[in-house]
Amino acid sequence: MNTLARRDCGIGLRARHYRDFLDGEPDVGWLEVHSENYFGDGGFDLHVLERVRARYPVSLHGVGLSLGSADGLRARHLERLVRLADRIEPALVSEHLCWGAWGERHFNDLLPMPFTDEALTMMIDRVAQVQERLRRKILVENVSSYVTYRDSTMSEMEFLAALARRSGCGLLLDVNNLHVNAVNHGHDAEAELARVPAGVVGEIHLAGHSVVDELLVDDHGSRVSGAVWQLYESACRRLGSVPTLIEWDTGVPELPVLLDEAARATRIRESVDG
Fold first, then answer.
1. Which fold has domain 9-273?
2. What are the residues whose beta carbons fall under 8 Å from the beta carbon of 43, sequence distance 6 or more?
3. Cα gap 22→48, rounded to integer Å
4. Most buried of the four, 129, 168, 188, 209, by CB within 10 Å?
5. Which H or E run includes 117?
6. Rounded to 5 degrees, what are φ and ψ at 106?
7. Can you tell me whether residue 77 is helix, strand or coil?
8. How far from 189 is each of 37, 53, 176, 234, CA to CA, in Å?
9. In whole angstroms, what is the distance from residue 128 CA to residue 165 CA?
């Protein structure tokens, strides 16, 4: 079981819910995990993942490869990812359009890229290296950001569309990040969504955010907001049925809350599909 139906809705597997999945089989289409949490050669986390993988499609979502770092890919990190992917045989593998390391220093954040031709050329090469080593296409996700670069010559979605076209990767569209950035930087989320090419989005993420003064903070710590649900409906109309995931990483609630959010995503998608 290593494929996803385009209509499937899933949730992120978090430690709080391990026992739910070890003792039962909750009604959810698929599960996604942060790759780095399972890089070890053994231990309880990997044991749970292997048990879960026998019953559900699993996606590996990386947060630490730092695709956009100017000093090159993290070779050791990539080899660990390759080993995990070979072991788990995931339905999808994804990473972020960002950088987060320099030399041996990791910043524990997903820092935004400048959207320039130079950065695009570099990212095409990086994605090619990762896809060649993994022997599969990856998905690259748009990230939330709180600064922009004066040198950028295109929007994030224009950059991602060009990256997908020229590298052969797919896109992971985070609808919450799209909304957060639109509010924080004063642009139109619907217009950015219209720049996403049909057919290249392999997964959608939905999550909650918090409001700090006039700034939206992508903290994955609450239910999906009304504005993001509305933008998700627009994405479904534009892109059709795409595997959708509910992310919740801080203040993780009981499992039924996540399943309820996934069910709402299913209802929205079905209402669009008719």
1. TIM Barrel (3.20.20)
2. none
3. 7
4. 209
5. helix 117-134
6. -110, 135
7. helix
8. 32, 35, 10, 10
9. 12
- Which pLDDT score, from 0 to 100, does residue 7 have? 75
DSSP bridge partners of 99: 111
30 SS3 class: strand
Read off the amino acid at residue 190: E
**Low-confidence residues in the chain, pLDDT < 50:** 1
Rounded Cα–Cα distance for residues 163 and 197 (Å): 11
CA proximity to 31, closest of 249, 246, 236, 265:
246
pLDDT digits over 52-82, tens only?
A: 999 999 999 999 999 999 888 889 999 999 9
Structure tokens that stand for 173 in this block: 């569209």
pLDDT of residue 214: 83
Q: Which two tokens stand for residue 4?
A: 């996803």
The widest CA-to-CA distance across the chain, in whole angstroms, is 53
Q: Where are the domains of the chain?
A: 9-273
pLDDT of amino acid 2: 62
d(CA 148, CA 142): 14
Which residues 6+ apart lie within 8 Å of 62 measured at CB? Answer: 34, 35, 36, 81, 93, 94, 95, 96
